[in-house]
Design goal:
Blueprint lengths: L1 E7 L4 H10 L6 E7 L8 H4 L4 E4 L6 H9 L4 E4 L9 H6 L3 E3 L6 H17 L1 H9 L18 E5 L3 H12 L3 E5 L5 H6 L3 E2 L3 H7 L2 E4 L13 H6 L5 E4 L8 H13 L8 E4 L12 H4 L4 E3 L8 H19 L11 H7 L5
Parallel strand pairs: 1-2, 1-3, 3-4, 4-5, 6-7, 6-9, 7-8, 9-10, 10-11, 11-12
Length: about 350
């Protein structure tokens, strides 16, 4: 019987056991279920006796990668798309295959992106807050316009952005995309116009939405210069990663709009991700800003998406320990092969 450490919040535990049965793996795999806090790391005792590690949000540092290797674990299945909380290089060095869950919540995040945009366009949250404060003013909030005829700028064009585009187009919006890895023909097939540069996209967009991974090239991708290029009535949406944005620059752009009566800066922002999530060291001025709509990194969440998340990680771990093969969603397989550290 192969043992896999399932290291997650308690809400996933019963779901994981049911998924193991559903996948027909219960006679070959057992789950060592350990409750974890967000961004906590497993202890050597947690790892003992396991062949693979499934993690919800653990910070996989170089030290953790070393602990995994010493425990005999050579497969780490991460319950996310983004890998910014995983030291993949350290895992590769220690001969550990890392897997993720691409596309498991593309529909959910796409819907949340459009929901944030429409909330701001219709002053829904701002209006509700005003009602709670005892007011009844249909003119409350920010000046906005119908989505039809406006331009939505998508930064990158992966699975999520590809589902945002038709939703925006159904609202009558034009969609422009800056995606260095996509051709003009690919974007045209999706009904989108190509922006040659990020600057070109920012200048022409009424709404800018981030859909890039957090990698060294995209850290602080949106900074002071970028916000200055945006239209003064523009909205900014981020369902990617908080660290892709210089939050001080974003805060300044919002304040500039208020101070200039809408002549400069940007109108408002909708954020599902912010900096400092791992230790709750948030920029409170940004979160509490009257032109900022923030949700707690919940865009991914639905019953269907969570089922997919649990299924994909259990399948990946089982493919390694039971089938003795590279899992379908291996993130660093090529690097392991090049380094000569592939654990198969």
């Amino acid at each position: 019987m192969h043992q896999i450490l399932f290291f997650s919040d308690k809400e996933f535990h019963e779901r994981a056991e049911h998924m193991l049965e559903k996948l027909g793996l219960a006679n070959e795999v057992s789950l060592k279920i350990v409750a974890s806090k967000q961004y906590a790391a497993p202890t050597p005792e947690d790892l003992n006796g396991c062949e693979a590690f499934i993690s919800e949000s653990a910070l996989i540092t170089a030290e953790v990668a070393e602990n995994l290797r010493q425990a005999g674990i050579r497969c780490c299945s991460v319950m996310s798309i983004g890998m910014n909380h995983v030291d993949v290089d350290a895992c590769t060095k220690n001969g550990i295959i890392v897997t993720n869950c691409p596309g498991y919540c593309a529909e959910e995040v796409a819907l949340h992106t459009v929901a944030l945009m429409l909330d701001l366009m219709r002053n829904i949250s701002m209006g509700y807050q005003s009602v709670l404060e005892g007011n009844w003013n249909p003119r409350v909030g920010i000046p906005t316009h119908r989505p039809a005829g406006q331009t939505l700028g998508l930064v990158f064009f992966g699975r999520i952005a590809q589902q945002v585009a038709p939703l925006a187009q159904a609202l009558g919006m034009n969609v422009v995309v800056w995606a260095p890895t996509k051709s003009k023909e690919e974007l045209a097939a999706a009904g989108c116009k190509q922006a040659e540069t990020l600057e070109e996209l920012l200048i022409q967009s009424d709404v800018v939405s981030l859909h890039c991974p957090l990698i060294p090239e995209t850290k602080n991708l949106m900074g002071e210069k970028e916000f200055e290029l945006m239209k003064p009535h523009a909205l900014f949406i981020n369902t990617a990663r908080g660290e892709c944005v210089d939050e001080d620059a974003l805060l300044n752009a919002l304040n500039t709009s208020i101070a200039s009566n809408g002549e400069k800066g940007i109108l408002a922002c909708g954020l599902d991700t912010v900096c400092g999530e791992s230790n709750h060291s948030f920029n409170r001025k940004l979160i509490e800003h009257p032109r900022s709509l923030v949700t707690p990194h919940l865009a991914y969440n639905s019953e269907e998406a969570v089922d997919a998340l649990v299924r994909m990680t259990i399948e990946a771990a089982a493919q390694f320990v039971v089938e003795h093969r590279i899992p379908d969603n291996a993130y660093n397989a090529e690097d392991l092969i090049k380094a000569g550290t592939l654990p198969l």
